[in-house]
Specification:
This protein is an alpha+beta fold. It has 16 helices and 22 strands. It has helices at residues 14-22, 51-54, 107-116, 127-141, 148-161, 208-212, 250-256, 268-285, 301-311, 334-344, 349-352, 368-378, 420-428, 438-445, 452-455, 464-473, and strands at 2-8, 31-38, 41-48, 67-73, 89-92, 95-104, 164-174, 177-184, 193-196, 202-205, 218-221, 226-230, 237-240, 262-263, 266-267, 292-295, 314-316, 319-321, 345-347, 356-361, 384-389, 432-435. The two termini are 15 Å apart.
Amino acid sequence: MCGFVGLIAERPVATDLVIALQAIQHRGQDAAGLGTWEDGRVHMRKGLGMISEAVPPSSLPGLSGHAGIAHVRYPTAGAESTQEDAQPFRTRSPGILLAHNGNVTNVPEVTEGLKEQGIVVLSSCDAEPILLVFAAELRQRRSGGHTAADVVEAVRGVYRRVKGAYSVVAMVEVDGSPTLVAFRDPHGIRPGVYGQRADGAWMAASESVALDVHDIPKTDDLPVGDVLFLRPGQGALQLPVTSGTPRPCIFERIYFARPDSVMEDGRVNRLRWLMGRQLAQEWRAKGFEADVVVAVPDTSRPAAMAMADELGVRHREGFIKNRYTGRTFIMPDQASRDAALRLKLNPIREIFEGQRVLLVDDSIVRGSTMRRIVQMLRRMEPAALHVAIFSPAVRHPCFYGIDMPSPDELVAAQVPPDEVEAMLTKRFGADSVSFLSLDGLARVTGGPVCAACFDGQYVVPVSVRERAAILSDRRT
Ligand code: SF4
């Protein structure tokens, strides 16, 4: 998972880009980068770590130019982030600066195709093959002076050769003017939005919160199957490439995106609320009762509040989250793992003691954290401890850019679907474990989405060979 921001204006952009990028820091903390475009020359600063480390304030005076692209990286491929994998990437002929969010599922095939053209991929970042294909397709039309029609054909070439999920933003000279170009894969699996500032500048970003910090109203989501051309002071130009059917990632809404972001289907916070309300109806139908609803902070809070509302039960903050712990290291023994969890998430005894508690969380992947939370809460002596997850059980890995473990590490994939709740109730030591049903999820989302990690229906087919390659490349 990654996040990008592109900005084209009539004044320097570096500071505005860094500020907007901070709004989507949650989309990646491994590396960050900023490239600016000045009369066809690119100034670049990339590095490992958070934005403030990778692109420190002292670097901004050197990043001059009225257009640019910034990126935060969370690797889904490659063992560890290296500086070479940080985005944006660039080519000199033709001059392109590009960043993306997503995952290419046929990297070996794309790399092989490029090799046959004499083009070598140097990094393990998917942005590079996308960029190199885009550049090669542009060059095939003409060596320079590219038109909007050339870009449309080049994106068509990307669609033909590059499979997977990707939202892309690029700086290219089109029809003689610097242009911010944006496109998404033909299913629009990964998010992207754009909007115009009052002074005519255009911004495209992974989430609308990046626009919010500059008071830029969202014009729309990045189009699916079309390519978008943005120039300061002008209207957006949108040209069709193929007929696309949006199938946005539902897991973005459940877990990844900021709750205040607005996506195709509305504000993320609202969707989490609706999922919580739907889950409450399903949970009540099972005959369970609770005295208090508690969210595992922070993602599940709107769903927990909706459950409390729907069930007519009070909602209470039951945990104090320590925001200064940083990453959890792999702990050698149970005692230190318990201490690390308690350091991050300290329960308030009075909220749990003697109460029938309904604990709400967003998802279960490996299940180890929830097991430790339940064990920790048992020591608070609740009268009952029910766990409710406001998404269906994750039973399949994601190949489209969300870093999930292989199927044998997904706890809910170890038993048939109708045995998952009973198995986890026992494993966690809870009184019950409930998931939102697939039907319930479909009722909330309304339209077509990607929910492959829940239902195994992959929007873009991924061959057995591609699956094996992606999973073996994934971090453990
Ligand atoms: S498989 Fe799951 S996480 Fe991956 S894109 Fe689809 S919904 Fe999102």
